[in-house]
Write a structure and sequence with these properties.
The chain is of the alpha/beta class and 424 residues long. The protein has 2 domains: 70-296, Aspartate Aminotransferase, domain 2, CATH 3.40.640.10; 298-416, Aspartate Aminotransferase, domain 1, CATH 3.90.1150. Helices cover 39% and strands 13% of the residues. It has helices spanning 2-26, 30-40, 70-76, 86-103, 117-128, 142-154, 171-175, 237-243, 257-263, 280-296, 298-318, 346-357, 384-392, and strands at residues 59-60, 109-114, 134-139, 157-162, 194-196, 215-217, 230-235, 322-323, 335-339, 359-360, 373-377, 397-401, 412-416. The chain has a 4-stranded mixed beta sheet with strand order 2-7-6-5, with helices on both faces. It has a 3-stranded antiparallel beta sheet with strand order 8-9-11. It starts with a helix and ends in an 8-residue tail after the last strand. Its cofactor is pyridoxal 5'-phosphate. It comes from Scleropages formosus (Asian bonytongue). One of its GO terms (biological process) is glycine biosynthetic process, by transamination of glyoxylate. GO terms for molecular function: alanine-glyoxylate transaminase activity; L-serine-pyruvate transaminase activity. Residues 186-397 form the Aminotransferase class V domain.
Length: 424
Amino acid sequence: MLTALSHRGVILARGVNAHSCLSRVLHPPSACRSRRAMGSVSIPPPASLLRPLETPQRLLSGPGPSNVPPRVLAAAARQIIGHMHGEMLEIMDDIKKGIQYAFQTQNNMTLAMSGPGHVAMECAIFNTVESGESVLVAVNGIWGERAAEIAERIGARVNTIVKPPGGYFTKEEIEQVDLQLVFFFSHSHNCLFLLDAVASLGGSPILMDKQGIDILYTGSQKVLNSPPGTAPISFSERACKKMFHRKTKPLSYFLDMGWLANYWGCDGKPTRTYHHTGPISGFFTLRESLAILAEMGLENSWNRHKEVAEHLHKGLESMGFKLFVQEKHVRLPTVTTITVPPGYDWREITVYAMKHHNVEISGGLGPSSGMVGLPLSFHMTCLASSLIKISRKKDVQKTCHKRESESGPKKKKKVCVMCFRCCA
């Protein structure tokens, strides 16, 4: 008995000594730390990281991300839990149900990608397209161009129908394309229909099941008012049949829906297997954003965006602005694009709005760069009245330089940078 106690005492003593040694390693005396640092570290810590983090308060009315509500910010501040804990899996189940509601779908294969909307685009194409297959992409801007390039990199036979930025496609126009070229469109032609809803989901009516959409995805940082980093996506039964009866494995392991389906509990298996460590805080915020949308109601959200967009469009046009998308019925209520009058540099306007009002507006991207300026997006916030008030302030004046034309010398005009009216 005494021998046993003595032996145990030795073990405890060794434990104490081990803990003491570990403590000295992890928390050495300051003099020791200093000598060690001087002897082994040649690159000093960056001075910027020794200062507290500071970020400005801005009104984000550009194409995204959008301002995050306090309730969602509070969700981001919660202590993280394990990515495979039971509580985390329940949160993921909540997210799945929220996406099904937002998408208006009963698809079981519904989840959130770990990454921005661009990751969801690549996931959709990587999993459903194989080398040598035909794809038709309707291109009217940079995102159609990128979808086509992604399919080309896989080795697909990519065909495009193209319209200039601001244009749109009708179902009839697409069906007129040689049906042998079509991959993403019509069920009647044994094809799949993919829809990018990054800028519209939640602010414009989208009914995945009723509209026959096979693959639908969006991003968290737009209408959902969540931080960037998660991307809801859903696949129909037809899309799943195509995905899971491939001849080859998807090129991306990270985006392989065979793994992701299990990680999100979409494959019917009793246990979930580790695939990657998901963005836990991002899932917290996405869950909260979907909860806010559910509490508001989809139809209320659609109506709210429609009403505010109409108010914004009316106010802008009354001040002399020309909206880039000509036909009212195809304008997105979540993003308003404005054509900058010839001769003026939209960059001056965006810089001024940021510098003097902490309001973010931006220019075009890709094919629309230089053609359109000042995309204004308000997503789930009522920015219309605020933007119009800002544009009417007397102090929002600046000397803008009109570009020198071939027929005349350069002239200076003192104009209001928000409405382009002469203020002299």
